[in-house]
Design a protein that fits this description.
Largest sheet: 5 strands, mixed
Shape: globular
Order of helices and strands: HEEHEHEHEH
Radius of gyration: 12 Å
Distance between the termini: 10 Å
Strand content: 15-25%
Number of helices: 5
Helix content: 40-55%
Low-confidence stretches: none
Number of domains: 1
Number of strands: 5
CATH topology: Udp-n-acetylmuramoylalanyl-d-glutamate--2,6- Diaminopimelate Ligase, Chain: A, domain 1
Structural class: alpha/beta
Amino acid sequence: MTVSELVSASGFDVQCAPCPEKEISGVYIGDLLSWVMGKASQGDLWLTIMSNVNVVAVASLADVSAIVLTEGVVLGSDVISVANSKGINVITTNLSTYEAALKISGIIQ
């Protein structure tokens, strides 16, 4: 499943999608950036509430398919610019992280 297919199926909002055809291979949930760097896998969706520019750097290092911001969190325009320039997809939802994970699980099985 691609990021664009997930967005269509989930109803999540797109903040930026420079690479919407990236394949999703799994999910990682976490807010501690050092853990995400060491434990997220290439192609994972990364669910977080973190919204600073460092999440884009970590997403790039881990080569995740997209950052999924939960709890209504959104990126500032300056961070969106960096995400676009680094090819990092960012989608958002008002759902809690738990609810978003359940919804994603039902879609990507």
